[in-house]
Amino acid sequence: MANKLVIGNWKMNGSRKSNAELLSKILAPLERLESVDVAICPPFIYLEQLANLVVQSSIQLGAQDLNQAEHGAFTGEISGAMLRDFGCHYVLVGHSERRSLYGEGNDLVATKFQAALRSGLTPVLCVGETLEQRRKGVTLEVVNKQLQAVLDLLGVNQLGGGVLAYEPVWAIGTGETATPEQAQEVHRHIRQYIAENNSEVARTTRILYGGSVKGDNAAELFAQPDIDGGLVGGASLDVHSFLSICKAGQPRHT
Ligand code: 13P
Q1: If you average pLDDT over every residue of the chain, what do you get?
Q2: 65 CB less than 6 Å from ligand 1?
């Protein structure tokens, strides 16, 4: 089994001072953990600072978004090649905040996934339903469509070049976590959906859960058979919470 993966998504938070403080407190304890992969996605502007801070550690760096083009007249945008230039390994694509606040649809998200792979980055494709969609009982259809856009553009092998993250929108930043059973149901569905195309890719693709993951619920979530780690927002900004979550990602000794 691959290691569990915990990715901290700082969103639009941090400062040079607070970043340095946070990293000074988490670096040594994280190095003592075994068999768990950890990455941090700071705002673009702090990538260089973070790259310097994590250089001697096993923490990997990620970005929160990228532009689908390689370069050109796209004021304010950042390309995959630039992210590689700053040592990024991962990049989030299709985060629900990008989808809902900045109008990113499934087709655009698929082209961003493609651009990430083209640049040698590992895209983290975020999928998930809103509260309204869950109440209507269309959760699985929504997730299927979000996955299908990437499958249509790139095929299942390239989908498997990324990481998936199931983030129910109603659980993001609300303190209301999906129960382990609710999360597992969708994770299992996602794996089955991929397996219809390629069972090996389904088996090896890591599917993270995101949405109010905290120190006290991470272990239970990570114990589910189809949950391969977490995509963590708010709790990744807190030393104690982030360390507990990463610790929960270690293999359980029986
Ligand atoms: P919270 O952990 O703050 O709910 O955010 C989840 C998220 O959106 C991570 O990408």
Answers
A1: 97
A2: no
CA of 73 to the centre of ligand 1 (A): 32
Helix (H, G, I), strand (E, B) or coil at 197: coil
Domains of the chain listed by start with CATH number = 4-248 (3.20.20.70)
> 170-223, pLDDT tens digit by residue?
999 888 889 999 999 999 999 999 999 999 999 999 999 999 999 999 999 999
Which atom of ligand 1 is least distant from the CA of 171? 4
Q: Name the residue with the closest Cα to ligand 1, atom 2.
A: 233
Of residues 144 and 1, more confidently modeled: 144
Could you tell me whether strands 163-166 and 229-232 are parallel, antiparallel, or unpaired per DSSP bridges?
unpaired
Overall pTM > 0.90: yes
Residue 94 Cβ inside 6 Å of ligand 1? The answer reads no
With the most atoms of ligand 1 within 8 angstroms of its CB, the residue from 172, 237, 244 to mutate is 172
Cβ atoms of residues 79 and 69 within 8 Å: yes
Contacts of 176 (CB under 8 A, 6+ apart): 170, 211, 212
